[in-house]
């Protein structure tokens, strides 16, 4: 039996775990109409069968599109057409041996209409056999099937009977009656693409097991087995124990992988060791529900395998925005599986992709936490420090996003956890996500960040008294996610007095009489520790507070006079007593009155903290883009009793300890941004302050020029252009009104020096030479106390042997 069986399930989303068997996807294609001598192509607006993901593919896997590729779709729910969505025409080489290249796939949600427009550069023709590929990921769940190897023979996609429509999808018959919106529409075809057996010269090698009879079989577990089931001839590398716990991982069966479309056995890293983790985004829409994530993954899988002719999904793991981790390429989540995600560096890395587009929006905390946990676990299997660097051997030549170049076989040094753009010329994983990679590294490798002792019950501030030998509650907070913390220890005078789980935020201890120092120690899962600032607490043997009691008024001692009864007069026959009884006196003394007792009631701390230095902004050095201009935010907060923390509440949320007074951040150019901060003391009092600023990028075209300058064009430059000069004393001047400025340049080993003048005075000599090529590099900055009109001028020094300089504009802060 040949071909791909298409089974449509019931409409609706999957549960995150699935588990009832594979879900079949279906694909339809439509050839693009090429025009303008092969430099543009399009697909007219049309109705289609339902689909949720699309991509543009072409005949040669190594071809790239340097122009623009845009699509828009019609929603099945609202029937409204979307805005134009731009696709990345250079998504990487992909799988060695693949017969087609293409854009990264785009998740557009349930759709039934599409339109495409595509243009190359005038000097370059577009690749051959351009087509639109639309994927329906299937809905609901399908019944369980036998392993693929026992269902059908491997398909021969070159067989013309393998498709539902015309066999030649590259050149459809305009008169065909295949599903289309109108008689003039080219037909949409379904089934696998033609000629996936065509091969290219592999640039990387993998440890390929001997051919087995079947792919790994499903287990029915939501988390799946650690090791795949393979034939006896398969050589599977060991799965070493990790130094940190394994996070929950949803298996391929859990997201409904149809193993029949990728029957090949997995491959493994040639050296059997993962040296680094490459982070990606799928560049698909963020507008998906977490219950839809399995469908998104199935669509990516189908696109990679059936449209690009890869042997499996490219990523080793995927993570949705709710933090659920999914197994990607088969072979065992605890094995060093060879992926197809980082061209030139697949053979020593594993790839983790967050589902979504994070060019402008940052990933969720849940997703970042799961990425950090997963990266730490995989690296822990091989004793690799997530916060360190790794030296990798390039399997292919290339530049990266920052225009750094290398040759095949070169030894390249990267952070152990790095972005796709570090090793390839792509925007992946997006500017917003890339800016957060230092946070991912710290979360994965420790120590616990932002650890702050918040309160000690009865001791709201340093020096307050509590009662000895009774439970005292210590509370704390930290910015590192609890899932990455092994435990917390309460330290009393430097010794561990209580230990609780990493998910806890409080613990009880008893204090002996006397003065004590209390702190909290966080133990990261890596074993690294961090200790909070301590507070001093006095433990007393009597209640530290009591009332002043004044007894009731006491009457003075009283004297009671007791007089005997009167003596009768003498009468006849009666002899009176010899003597009369005198009166007696009785002194009655009231009971003793207790002494008054005194209670010293400390007044509550009602004084709020203060910003002794109000928040202020300054430009800083670093890589500049239109969506991420490097800034430094500075402040200083104080409190008369005890400052707890300072929180940045907008435009992003961050929490800083009481001794932190600055942070490195980024902001969009041309957008006024308000940075709002709130200081908290230990008693809960607060103070707020803010500062606003707008980074503005000035191109060289608006500068006043002297001497000879040459315009250069490249997508690596701001605005696509820059100016270069080797002429001594050639200059560029910018005049603006602002409070901070940064000079942006391109740098290389042959770059020369420049003088920098500010308001007519030479203030610096800046050497632009760099051992690595850098683009859009803010290399010099200055800041003033207030906004005012200034002129910054750059002058070419004409350095002997390397006179050339390339500028990329000036940024100022207004």
From TrEMBL:
Residue ranges of the region described as Disordered: 1-24, 87-268, 541-615
Residues in N-acetylmuramoyl-L-alanine amidase domain copies: 262-430
Biased composition (Basic and acidic residues): 125-134
GO MF: N-acetylmuramoyl-L-alanine amidase activity; zinc ion binding
SUPFAM superfamilies documented for this protein: N-acetylmuramoyl-L-alanine amidase-like
Biased composition (Low complexity): 153-183, 196-236, 541-610
Domain of life assignment: Bacteria
Domain Peptidoglycan recognition protein family stretches: 247-397
Compositional bias (Pro residues): 184-195, 237-248
Biased composition (Gly residues): 10-21
GO biological process entries: carbohydrate metabolic process; peptidoglycan catabolic process
Family affiliation: Belongs to the N-acetylmuramoyl-L-alanine amidase 2 family.
Name this protein carries in UniProt: N-acetylmuramoyl-L-alanine amidase
Organism classification: Bacteria, Bacillati, Actinomycetota, Actinomycetes, Kitasatosporales
């Amino acid at each position: 039996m040949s071909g791909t069986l298409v089974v449509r399930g019931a409409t609706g989303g999957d549960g995150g775990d699935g588990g009832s068997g594979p879900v079949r996807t279906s694909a339809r294609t439509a050839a693009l109409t090429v025009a303008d001598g092969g430099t543009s192509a399009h697909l007219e607006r049309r109705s289609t069968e339902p689909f949720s993901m699309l991509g543009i593919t072409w005949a040669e896997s190594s071809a790239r599109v340097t122009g623009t590729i845009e699509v828009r779709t019609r929603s099945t729910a609202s029937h409204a057409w979307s805005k134009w969505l731009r696709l990345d025409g250079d998504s990487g080489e992909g799988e060695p041996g693949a017969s087609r290249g293409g854009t990264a796939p785009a998740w557009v949600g349930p759709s039934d209409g599409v339109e495409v427009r595509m243009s190359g550069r005038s000097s370059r023709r577009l690749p051959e056999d351009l087509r639109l590929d639309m994927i329906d990921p299937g809905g609901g769940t399908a019944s369980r099937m036998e392993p693929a190897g026992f269902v059908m023979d491997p398909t021969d996609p070159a067989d013309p009977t393998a498709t539902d429509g015309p066999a030649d999808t590259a050149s459809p018959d305009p008169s065909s009656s295949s599903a289309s919106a109108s008689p003039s529409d080219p037909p949409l075809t379904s089934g696998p693409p033609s000629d996936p057996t065509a091969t290219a010269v592999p640039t990387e090698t993998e440890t390929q097991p001997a051919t087995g009879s079947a792919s790994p079989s499903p287990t029915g577990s939501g988390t799946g087995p650690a090791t795949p089931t393979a034939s006896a001839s398969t050589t599977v590398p060991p799965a070493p124990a990790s130094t940190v716990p394994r996070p929950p991982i949803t298996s391929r069966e859990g997201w409904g992988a149809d193993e029949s479309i990728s029957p090949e056995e997995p491959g493994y890293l040639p050296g059997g060791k993962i040296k680094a983790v490459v982070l990606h985004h799928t560049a698909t829409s963020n507008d998906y529900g977490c219950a839809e994530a399995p469908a998104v993954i199935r669509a990516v899988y189908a696109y990679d395998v059936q449209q690009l002719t890869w042997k499996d999904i490219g990523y080793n793991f995927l993570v949705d925005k709710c933090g659920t981790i999914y197994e990607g390429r088969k072979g065992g989540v605890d094995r060093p599986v060879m992926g197809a995600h980082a061209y030139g560096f697949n053979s020593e890395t594993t790839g983790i992709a967050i589902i979504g587009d994070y060019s402008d929006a940052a990933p969720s905390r849940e997703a970042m936490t799961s990425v950090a946990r997963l990266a730490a676990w995989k690296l822990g299997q091989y004793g690799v420090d997530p916060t360190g660097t790794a030296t990798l051997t390039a399997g292919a030549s290339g530049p990266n996003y920052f225009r750094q170049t290398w040759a095949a076989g070169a030894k390249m040094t990267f952070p152990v956890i790095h972005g796709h753009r570090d090793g390839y010329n792509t925007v992946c994983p997006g500017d917003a996500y890339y800016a957060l990679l230092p946070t991912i590294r710290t979360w994965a490798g420790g120590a616990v960040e932002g650890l702050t002792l918040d309160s000690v019950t009865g001791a709201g501030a340093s020096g307050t008294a509590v009662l000895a030998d009774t439970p005292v509650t210590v509370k704390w907070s930290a910015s590192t996610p609890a899932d990455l913390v092994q435990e917390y220890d309460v330290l009393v005078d430097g010794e561990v007095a209580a230990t609780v789980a990493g998910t806890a935020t409080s613990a009880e201890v008893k204090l002996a009489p006397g003065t004590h120092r209390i702190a909290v120690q966080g133990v990261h899962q890596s074993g690294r520790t961090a200790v909070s600032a301590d507070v001093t607490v006095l433990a007393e043997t009597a209640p530290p507070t009591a009332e002043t009691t004044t007894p009731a008024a006491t009457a003075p001692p009283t004297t009671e006079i007791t007089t005997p009864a009167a003596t009768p007069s003498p009468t006849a026959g009666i002899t009176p007593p010899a003597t009369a009884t005198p009166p007696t006196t009785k002194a009655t003394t009231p009971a003793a009155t207790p002494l008054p007792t005194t209670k010293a009631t400390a007044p509550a701390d009602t004084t709020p903290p203060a910003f002794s230095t109000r928040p202020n902004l300054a430009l800083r050095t670093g890589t500049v883009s239109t969506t991420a201009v490097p800034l430094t935010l500075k402040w200083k907060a104080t409190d008369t009793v005890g400052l707890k923390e300072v929180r940045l509440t907008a435009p992003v949320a961050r929490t800083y300890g009481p001794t932190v007074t600055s942070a490195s951040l980024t902001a969009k150019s041309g957008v006024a941004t308000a940075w709002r901060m709130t200081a908290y003391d230990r008693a809960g009092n607060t103070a707020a302050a803010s500062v606003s600023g707008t980074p503005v990028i000035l191109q060289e075209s608006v500068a006043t020029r002297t001497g000879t300058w040459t315009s250069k064009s490249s997508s690596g430059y701001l605005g696509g252009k820059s100016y270069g000069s080797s002429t001594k004393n050639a200059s560029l001047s910018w005049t603006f009104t602002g409070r901070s400025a940064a000079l942006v340049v391109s740098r290389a080993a042959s770059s020369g020096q420049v003088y920098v003048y500010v308001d007519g005075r030479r203030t610096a000599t800046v050497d632009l030479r760099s051992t690595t090529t850098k683009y859009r590099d803010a290399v010099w900055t200055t800041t003033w106390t207030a906004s005012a009109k200034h002129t910054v001028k750059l002058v070419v020094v004409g350095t002997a042997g390397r006179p050339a300089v390339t500028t990329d504009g000036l940024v100022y802060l207004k």
